[in-house]
């Protein structure tokens, strides 16, 4: 093959890799290679075997069949340290950082720099971390504790940490899931630099547009086997999706039946479900990395899906949190009108009573109790409501949970299964289901499809469309322009905690939306880079 | 362009393929049941061992004698009642170190009110229970409202309750005598030292059984219990789901204090004595029963059934060791090892077992 010569020598060759967990084959007979200076994308739905394959390569799981060669030498890893010594580093989807430690301490965790006297050399660690952060294109103080950083910033720290390993082979599992578009571009610059240095990169992502941009080759896994290989640049999203799920996928976001937005915007303002006027939240102690609303105005009508666009730190999450009563402070200016009545939600309970539901940004941290059953998680918000004399009627809660999981198409063994055993997409559907059970009139969602595979993504979009068509107003914060354009009727762009622009999604391209999020000044530069 | 498609022939479509993850989840259901009730299995094992090692008298096994068996339950009843409250606290991811001291305070309170103050039985009991409830609620407020760690708050509560008990009793134990005269407790109170059902079931054992049964029912059916488990499983998610986290936490510590006071009343009635120094280390026995019972110290996982079995397991073990005249110091060693063993078994429990 011609690409053999172009891509350079093989760094990693995996041949006939099989791995089973207690009789269940997670990966069977997979061949996978990474060449010098190559970005090789690995695609597949959740549970297709991507993570298992990469855990074999990074030494996190042993007991596999097949052969691995690194630079032609046969190897057999049983511990992550073995793989690291062979120059393989993995950036995990789960951010394995110690919250209380600083950025620098995390980057050098376990390999702290010492002075001659055996004392930790803080100065050198700080300056070297600073350089790594610069390389990763991040503007962060290395002294800041991790717990003060937003998810996206934490993700950038893990990338800087991986860079510190000087690995020859870098495995990136969903490295951009929490990054803003601008930061994604920066990451790509870093990747380009790494590949010029001869490193090989395995890139796992659910975002098709990224793969076309950054990868050379793409391999698709389904049910533990390789089902297709593509030239990543020539691959279309439709081709890849079809290979991943095994049937054609229509990323049709809205259903045909829903009322169109043109019709809605003709209606009088009195029909606004949610109306925010010049909302300002000022907190006594400003929280680093957060941006409270500093002048936001918007409205959401019944049956309408409104998007919130903006860079990381533009204040999308904080606006949703304020509406749900879990923000840092009380509104100090402006008004929130729900159904024409001024409201000031003081907490989730009151917000839920007002008919507001909230799907938070990180379902593992804020959305679900993973060790508990699907049933318990699904009905948690309404157990009080359906209880008679404090007792929960079992038949009724089962019926409600069954109906909800079926309507949302949650794939599960039984309602008693721990919700943590479900795939990411199905977990997200459980969070959504719990919220819909409260019969909200306003549904707030923060990055609802992060880390969710393409099939589940399409289903979540369908559910949002369905929910809106029943008259629910939806406010959706997302950092994926395609999602905002595909799903929303209108998009409000936030910048530095202010609403700066309202965009009709019918007449806007992804590039335009991206440019709007970046602010006027950056538009030309950003577009120039992309074209 | 090297575009090739492999293995994509015929075969069952993805919709008919059984998701391997689903199969795995089903398999763990049985395993998780065993682990969830490990202390019940442990109790059966210890019970059988006790029969095997029981000394015999006149061809009868001493251990299996019904009065001995009920003695086991009676000896377990005070820590058992404490452990029921402790289970709720640990389920929300908390801990209550004050229960032993509150038990002492309640026993003093019962004695002082009945003997020194000549209060009637019902008002005296109600006042003592109210003191325990209030003490627990206050600790709950400090923990849930002001965000101080439960370990610290209840460590302080342990000192405070002990100090109050000593101040109230004047530093001396108060002996309870029964009768109609001044400075005598009503005879009814002495029932706590008696047995019912043909002199078979000790009253404290009966109280323990009733408390445990009520707690089991509460945890099975109530919306409150869903909130308890949800808080222990993921407090942030629980709060965002509309669970009244602060209120539930305060209430749980209140219930724990109430049950500690009840155990103190039982204690005073069994010994006819209000002891300001009584109940020391009881909190640790209660925590041990909860841990042996399979309740996770990180919260969200466990059951009162497990705790009751855990408490009884320790009781049976103590009983059979005593029947065999094993030195009490050796008993401590053995019980210590059992706690470690139980915690070790927890580690083997599959992560997904709920």
TrEMBL record, chain A:
It holds the Pfam family ABC_tran. It comes from Amycolatopsis minnesotensis. SUPFAM superfamilies: P-loop containing nucleoside triphosphate hydrolases (SSF52540). Keywords: ATP-binding, Nucleotide-binding, Repeat, Transport. Residues 12-248, 274-521 form the ABC transporter domain. It comes from the Bacteria. InterPro entries: AAA+_ATPase (IPR003593), ABC_carbohydrate_import_ATPase (IPR050107), ABC_transporter-like_ATP-bd (IPR003439), ABC_transporter-like_CS (IPR017871), P-loop_NTPase (IPR027417). This is Sugar ABC transporter ATP-binding protein. One of its GO terms (molecular function) is ATP binding.
TrEMBL record, chain B:
It comes from the Bacteria. Pfam families: BPD_transp_2. Keywords: Cell membrane, Membrane, Transmembrane, Transmembrane helix. It is a multi-pass membrane protein. InterPro entries: ABC_transp_permease. Its main location: membrane. It is found in: Cell membrane. The chain crosses the membrane at residues 33-53, 97-115, 121-138, 199-219, 248-268, 280-297, 330-348. This is Ribose ABC transporter permease. It comes from Amycolatopsis minnesotensis.
């Amino acid at each position: 093959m011609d690409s053999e010569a172009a891509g350079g020598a093989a760094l990693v060759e995996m041949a006939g890799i099989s791995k089973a967990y207690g009789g269940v084959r997670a990966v069977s007979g997979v061949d996978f290679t990474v060449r010098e200076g190559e970005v090789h994308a690995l695609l597949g739905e959740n549970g297709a075997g991507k993570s298992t394959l990469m855990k074999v390569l990074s030494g996190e799981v042993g007991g596999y069949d097949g052969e691995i060669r690194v630079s032609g030498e046969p190897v057999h890893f049983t511990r992550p340290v073995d793989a690291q010594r062979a120059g393989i580093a993995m950036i995990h989807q789960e951010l394995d950082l110690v919250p209380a430690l600083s950025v620098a301490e995390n980057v050098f965790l376990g390999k702290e720099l010492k002075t001659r006297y055996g004392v930790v050399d803080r100065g050198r660690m700080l300056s070297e971390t600073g350089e790594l952060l610069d390389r990763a294109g991040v503007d962060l103080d290395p002294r800041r504790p991790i717990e003060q950083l937003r998810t996206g910033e934490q993700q950038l720290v893990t990338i800087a940490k991986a860079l510190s390993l000087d690995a020859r082979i870098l495995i990136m599992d969903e490295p951009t899931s929490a990054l803003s578009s601008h930061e994604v571009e920066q990451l790509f610059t870093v990747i380009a630099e790494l590949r010029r240095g001869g490193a090989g990169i395995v890139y796992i992502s659910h975002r098709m547009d990224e793969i076309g941009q950054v990868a050379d080759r793409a391999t698709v896994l389904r049910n533990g086997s390789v089902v297709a290989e593509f030239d990543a640049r020539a691959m279309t999203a439709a081709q890849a999706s079809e290979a991943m799920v095994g049937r054609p996928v229509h990323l049709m976001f809205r259903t045909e039946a829903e009322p169109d937005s043109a019709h809605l915007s003709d209606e009088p303002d009195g029909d606004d479900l949610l109306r925010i006027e010049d909302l300002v939240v000022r907190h006594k102690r400003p929280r680093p990395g957060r941006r409270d609303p500093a002048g936001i105005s918007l409205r959401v009508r019944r049956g309408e899906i409104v998007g919130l666009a903006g860079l990381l730190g533009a204040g999308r999450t904080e606006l949703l949190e304020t509406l749900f009563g879990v923000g840092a402070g009380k509104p100090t200016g402006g008004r929130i009108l729900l159904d024409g009545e001024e409201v000031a939600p003081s907490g989730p309970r009151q917000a839920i009573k007002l008919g507001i539901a909230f799907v938070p940004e990180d379902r593992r941290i804020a959305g679900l109790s993973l060790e508990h059953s699907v049933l318990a998680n699904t009905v948690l918000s309404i157990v009080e409501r359906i209880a008679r004399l404090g007792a929960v009627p079992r038949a009724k809660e089962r019926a409600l949970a069954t109906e909800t999981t079926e309507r949302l198409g949650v794939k599960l063994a039984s309602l008693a299964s721990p919700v943590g055993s479900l795939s990411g997409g199905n977990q997200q559907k459980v969070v959504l289901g719990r919220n819909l059970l409260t019969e909200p009139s306003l549904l707030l969602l923060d990055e609802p499809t992060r880390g969710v595979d393409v099939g589940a993504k399409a289903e979540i979009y369908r559910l949002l469309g369905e929910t809106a068509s029943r008259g629910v107003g939806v406010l959706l914060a997302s950092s994926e322009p395609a999602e905002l354009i595909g799903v929303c009727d209108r998009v409000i762009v936030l910048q530095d905690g202010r609403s700066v622009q309202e965009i009709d999604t019918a007449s806007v391209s992804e590039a335009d939306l991206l440019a709007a999020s970046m602010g006027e000044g950056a538009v030309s530069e950003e577009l120039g880079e992309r074209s | 362009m090297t575009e090739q498609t492999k293995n994509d022939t015929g075969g069952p479509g993805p919709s008919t393929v059984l998701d391997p993850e689903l199969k795995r989840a089903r398999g763990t259901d049985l395993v998780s049941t065993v682990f969830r009730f490990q202390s019940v299995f442990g109790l059966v094992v210890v019970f059988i061992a006790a029969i095997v090692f029981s000394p015999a008298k006149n061809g009868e096994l001493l251990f299996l004698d019904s009065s001995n068996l009920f003695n086991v339950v009676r000896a377990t009843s005070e820590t058992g009642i404490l452990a029921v409250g402790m289970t709720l606290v640990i389920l929300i991811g908390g801990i209550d170190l004050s229960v032993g001291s509150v038990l002492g305070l309640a026993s003093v309170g019962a004695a002082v009110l009945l003997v020194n103050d000549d209060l009637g039985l019902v008002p005296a009991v109600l006042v003592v229970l109210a003191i325990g409830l209030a003490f627990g609620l206050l600790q709950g407020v400090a923990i849930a409202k002001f965000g101080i760690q439960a370990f610290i708050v209840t460590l302080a509560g342990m000192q405070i309750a002990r100090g109050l008990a000593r101040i109230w009793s004047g530093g001396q134990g108060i002996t309870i005598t029964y009768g109609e005269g001044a400075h005598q407790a009503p005879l009814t109170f002495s029932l706590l030292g008696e047995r019912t059902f043909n002199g078979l079931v000790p009253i404290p054992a009966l109280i323990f059984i009733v408390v445990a049964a009520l707690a089991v029912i509460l945890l099975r059916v109530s919306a409150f219990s869903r909130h308890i488990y949800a808080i222990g499983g993921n407090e942030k998610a629980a709060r965002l789901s509309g669970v009244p986290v602060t209120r539930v936490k305060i209430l749980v510590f209140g219930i724990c204090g109430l049950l500690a006071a009840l155990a103190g009343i039982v204690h005073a009635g069994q010994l006819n004595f209000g002891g300001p120094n009584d109940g020391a280390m009881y909190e640790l026995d209660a925590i041990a029963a909860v841990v042996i019972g399979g309740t996770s110290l990180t919260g969200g996982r466990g059951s009162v059934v497990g705790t009751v079995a855990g408490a009884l397991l320790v009781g049976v073990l103590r009983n059979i060791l005593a029947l065999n005249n094993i030195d009490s110091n050796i008993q401590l060693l053995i019980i210590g090892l059992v706690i470690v063993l139980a915690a070790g078994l927890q580690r083997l429990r599959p992560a997904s077992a709920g």
